[in-house]
Amino acid sequence: MKVGFYQYNPVFGKKEENVRRVLSAIRETDADLLVLPEFFATGYQFVSREEVTGLSEKIPEGHTTQALSALSKKKNLHIVAGLPEKAGELFYNSAILTGPDGFIGVYRKTHLFFEEKLFFSPGDTGFQVWDTSIGHIGIMICFDWYFPESMRTLALMGADIVAHPSNLVLPHCPNSMPVRCRENRVYAVTANRIGEEARKEGTPLRFIGLSQITAPDGSILVQALEDDEALLTLDIDPALARNKAVTSLNNLFEDRRPEMYRTISKTRLQNSGSPEESG
To answer: Among the options 51, 116, 142, 173, which is catalytic?
Structure first.
């Protein structure tokens, strides 16, 4: 299948304008799966709950989801895109998946980054993988990559490819995704944005670009520049992500020994005391 990403610089608060721009940019793509950045239509740096309330949407009935669903139907195209979701009195940093039949599903970000915690609730959907006509698609959002459990969970659930909408400001992710893909033998499409937002006092947020498609062997198949708008696509073979053999005697998942992996909870750490306390 042909997969790709669209990297660009949205204008904060100009939701309908940003949606129109993106629809125009991707209208001629012949990809089977296209990934858009986190908060692709709203911008990222919210400074008040009022802004979050005004720019968030219900899913799937909101304008943004409906617009992408319509394009997916028209183009026979799967799209993954990040947007702020309103659900009752709560707000989530979410990503939707649309396809040839319209809306497919939503994932709510598990690991919130920095000031997202001021306005958004931690995701409650859990990680999900959708069995589509083009393969098994999983989603994680931006800072989720920092936690190996995110990618491993999606891989164990059968993901061939992980769509990764992002607004990256830290420099580490582009160099780390090859490790995430190699240790799970899956593809990943990281769709980042470019530009800066300086909507409050302090250091502006500078988004690092470098959107990329990473292969199951850890190789970076294509990567955008730091500052340029880019719509890049390429063909991949999902079957490569289903082969978990490392050697003729080793299989990445069959060799796992979950009974040997211990989870150390906060409660356990608190109960154990410091080295001084325990003598």
So the answer is: 142
Q: What is the pLDDT of residues 218-246, one digit of tens each?
A: 999 999 999 999 999 999 999 999 999 99
Please check whether residue 62 lies inside any domain of the structure: yes
> Would 250 be classed as within a structural domain?
no
Q: Number of structural domains, the chain?
A: 1
Catalytic residue, from 15, 38, 57, 181: name it: 38
Q: Does the active-site annotation cover 181?
A: no
- For residue 105, the number of C-alpha atoms closer than 13 Å in the C-beta half-sphere is 14
Give the other-Cβ count within 10 Å of 199's Cβ.
15
Residue 58 annotated among the catalytic residues of the structure: no
- As a whole number of Å, the CA-based R_g of the chain is 19
- Hey, how many other C-beta atoms are within 10 angstroms of the C-beta on 2? 15
Q: Which domain holds residue 99?
A: 2-245
Q: Which is the catalytic residue, given 57, 109, 116, 181? A: 109
Provide the CATH number for the domain around residue 132.
3.60.110.10
Query: What pTM, to 2 d.p., does this model score?
Result: 0.94
**pLDDT tens-digit readout, 32-50:** 999 999 999 999 999 999 9
Annotation says 14 is catalytic: no
Residue 134 lies in a domain: yes
Residue 275 lies in a domain: no
